[in-house]
Amino acid sequence: MISDEGSHFISKHFEKLLQRFGVRHKLATPITPKQVAKLRFQIGKFKLFLRKLYQLLEKIGQLSLMMLFGPIGRHTRLPSE
């Protein structure tokens, strides 16, 4: 179990309960607002990258269809079966 050093995780009763069930308790340093801001920024950059990649893949897919079937415009008639 990992906790952020909160007071409810440091009590003797809690430690005895964890020992009873064989659970190991590790303390982690709390995340600061500055770290949260950095994470949000990096996640935003990653989302932007994924959007651009998706758009690129869509264009590649459209180009490959055009190479197979030729340009299909609004007024192009498709062959009927």
Characterise the protein shown here:
The protein is mainly alpha-helical and 81 residues long. It has two helices and two strands; from the N terminus they run E-H-E-H. A two-stranded parallel ribbon has the order 1-2. It is elongated. The relative contact order is 0.09.
Q: Total strand count, please?
A: 2
Q: Could you estimate the helical fraction of the residues in percent?
A: 55-70%
Q: Could you tell me how far the N terminus lies from the C terminus, measured between alpha carbons in angstroms?
A: 64 Å
Mean pLDDT: 76
Number of domains: 2
The helix/strand class is: mainly alpha
- Which runs of at least 5 residues are low in confidence (pLDDT < 50)? none
Strand order of the largest sheet: 1-2
What proportion of the residues form beta strands (DSSP E)? Answer: under 5%
Q: Tally the helices.
A: 2
Radius of gyration: 28 Å
Overall shape: elongated
The biggest beta sheet is recorded as: 2 strands, parallel
Instruction: List SSEs in N-to-C order.
Output: EHEH
